[in-house]
Amino acid sequence: MKIAVMQPYVFPYLGYFQLIKSADVFVFYDDVSFIKGGWINRNNILVQHQKKMITFPCKDISSFKQISETYMNPQNPLYKKNLKSIEQSYRKAPYFDAVFPIIKKVFQGEAETISEFAMNSVTSIMEYLEIDTVFQVSSKSYSESKEMERTERLLHICKKAGASHYINSLGGQELYAKEDFEVENISLNFLVPNLPVYEQFSATFISGLSMIDVLMFNDKETVRGFLHEYSLV
Q1: Closest CA to 231 of 187, 196, 178, 191
Q2: Who has the most CB within 10 Å: 22, 86, 92, 232?
Q3: How many CA atoms lie within 13 A of 15 on its CB side?
Q4: Are 91 and 103 contacting, i.e. CB atoms less than 8 angstroms apart?
Q5: Phi and psi for 79 in degrees, rounded to 5?
């Protein structure tokens, strides 16, 4: 059984969803530190043919707080402005009518923390794509391992889940050694995403945007195909 573990991000890019698709079980790593200036509550969308960063407002952001302890700030005008920006930017996209209601439902949901909001953004898209990866949340399923050292904790999660294969993002090559997992009879691979080019509004393609962009310009079956376009090293 294959497992992947990753912090929850809001409407993350395609590579994140390729990581989910590569696994049988995907664990949202929500009881780790919130990284200020990271991508947990930020992403890029296409606005007037340019890459534009949008930030989802949170209260009292601190690296001393866990992601699961960081609360959204829906009263901040930026919260509604973000939804309006997405609507205005993509309303002429070919799959707007199918995709925007999904995004709007996430914004209008009852998530209180950035963790819940981010997880809802991911699971809603996977439901739309009809992908049946099993989702777990580290603070609920693996809280007993929270104080463990980084590699020790991931090994604990793998063993408790009954996984024989752990798949990490490419950046994990700097953090984890295959030998440490092999000692526990667990294979470790790193996912190399392939981000295909697709037609946007203009002739110049802008890559690495939020999954929102991918969904707005491609039909469901095409996007499902994109999820397989990765390699493992």
Answers
A1: 191
A2: 86
A3: 17
A4: no
A5: -60, -55
